[in-house]
Amino acid sequence: MDNITLARLLDETAALLEIDGADPFRIRSYRRAAEAVEQQTTQLAALATPEADPKALLAIGGIGKGMAANIRDLAATGTMPLRDELLKKYRPTMLGLLKLPGMGPKTVALLYEALDIADIDALEAAAKRGDLLTLPRMGQKFTDKLIQGIEDHRKNSSRFRIDVAREHAERISELIRAFPGVETITPAGSLRRGRETCGDLDLLVTGQACEPDVVAAAVEHVATLPIIDKLLARGQNKVSFTLRNNLQVDVRLLPRASYGAALQYFTGSKHHNVALRQRAIKRGLTLSEYALLRLEDNTIVAAATERDIYNALELDYIPPELRENCGELEAAANHTLPQLIVRSDIRGDVHMHTFESDGSNSIREMAEAALARGLEYIAITDHSKLLTMTNGMDDARTLAHASRIRAASLELQADIAEVNTALAADRDLSGDARLASLYKVAVARRESGIQDSAPASALPLHPNFTILAGIEVDILLDGSIDMEIETLAQLDVVVASVHSGFNQSEAEVTARILRACENPYIHIVGHPTGRKVLKREPYKVDLDQLLPTAARLGIAVEHNAAPARADLSDLNLRRAKDFGCKLIVNTDAHGTEELDQIDHGIVQLRRAWLTPADLINTQPLAQFLASLRPRP
Ligand code: DGT
Ligand code: CA
Ligand code: CA
Ligand code: ZN
């Protein structure tokens, strides 16, 4: 039994336990074991035989004595006692139901008990017949939502969110890189172009191991990777397989001499490639995945790098994010491609949470993490009171929190000065309990030689780093804001977002947000469409009304960089720019590491052809504050 099958059976057991109402810790132990098994780089079945050292399995994190016994049972018999027991009560297809929106384990158990529903098809049929209406708390509204949810699920389940795809790409690349002679692995296709979702992964591999005379062994290495669920195809220099989650991976191993041509070809998009080939033909050239050739004598014009190919076609190099055949060839020919935004252009991130509401870090921790990433300012914007499940703040708590934020900012600035001075004098502060972590950030920044664009940042830590006091208020169903104007007036940054009433009609949602915009203390409309990539359709806000209104009032429109949200699509970002909106990109981080989500945001901004001048948080603090909507 291979690792993937093992992991799948453990995961299935976890889901069945969940439906059975088992202890959450017990459920989690099976989930963790499934993950641990899947991460292994060697096949575990060999360690699970009676002859193998029993300690070998236990050495794996996430696998204890009981779980090791389960794995031995699974490897020996293809099943285990607990699984058999659960399968007497339930059917394995029921775990598919858990993937539907609004479908928890209790509902799944109820559906099975009452109506013998064990898979999505049966559920859909029952919902359409109106059978669910006989069950408690399942009215017409629930049924309608469910039918829509099933439809969305069918449509979405064949694509993967970019961050999920990227994570898999990195993990697989690591495994491939272990083969001697592999030098470079580049994700191509939609992942490289930065699309929000990927249909499959395209990985290009080059290096000595991929030269034609020796490639066979490298192909063998790839075709036997332990993460492979189903091997789909295996050719001379190509391996295709699927992972346990059904994500397809196409790996191509290519000699260095044609790497650029292959990278260009497999990055796409298809439409960009078609247009590029036509351009080649007009010049008596022919472009393929192997090379750009002269038609008359088949001599190679360019092949090793993408830049060579574009330049040989009298084009500037076109960044992958622009390759959608949306005018990029014309711009490249006329030398008018935009100077696309990059991560280091971002100076501030003004939408994030701490454990005052539903974040997982303190003000100081968020600030130090932002400093480590080279930011110059942040705003802490915890939730307001309407969001009770996030422990949202009322007016009094908001003001108390704001003064703590401002105190933390002043204290941090003083500490930064002390750390910078110490560093300049080669004085070690790592033993200082209060300054140790800040000192560590400073040392790391000095050593990595990160240079920010601001002159002040010649110092390891930006001396004027500022934590702004902000809030993310809720736009109520009628468009009012769940906080007093007097409170908002005392805050530096006010983000207003919709977190409820997703079923309102287009007219209702639009009027509601427009009314919120009339509140003169709102600076930023947070995640303005409320969509969740592959999970939840946007609420029906009419951007053709919202965007011009925001532009007229000077309200900034947020691109939420969280890959689950990617709130404004590339097209909507372009629309926002065309309407003259102030744009801002924020992470909405609920923990320090989520500050890195900014990368996903940047990719979408690049796909929208945006430059640093199109965003307001590329400006230094003073200009940034001045570009927020002025207070009455
Ligand atoms: P995806 O996987 O649906 O997210 O989108 P892509 O763009 O990654 O598409 P995929 O994986 O089918 O192919 C990767 C690239 O290979 C694609 O962007 C362009 C190139 N390619 C694939 N098939 C064709 C084709 O039939 N004609 C042309 N011109 N290019 C192709
Ligand atoms: Ca692809
Ligand atoms: Ca592909
Ligand atoms: Zn937020």
Structure description:
The protein has 632 residues and is of the alpha/beta class. The protein has four domains: 3-90, DNA polymerase beta, N-terminal domain-like (DNA polymerase, domain 1), CATH 1.10.150.110; 160-254, Beta Polymerase, domain 2; 262-333, Beta Polymerase, domain 3 (2-Layer Sandwich); 344-408 and 466-627, Metal-dependent hydrolases (TIM Barrel, Alpha-Beta Barrel). 43% of the residues lie in helices and 12% in strands. The chain is built from 25 helices and 17 strands. The protein has a seven-stranded parallel beta sheet. It has a five-stranded mixed beta sheet with strand order 2-4-7-6-5, with helices on both faces. Strand 11 (348-349), helix 17 (363-372) and strand 12 form a beta-alpha-beta unit. The radius of gyration is 27 Å and the shape is globular. It binds 2'-deoxyguanosine-5'-triphosphate, calcium ion (2 copies) and zinc ion. 2'-deoxyguanosine-5'-triphosphate is lined by residues 189-190, 195, 198-200, 202, 265-266, 268-270, 273-274. Residues 189-190, 198-200, 202 line the site of one calcium ion.
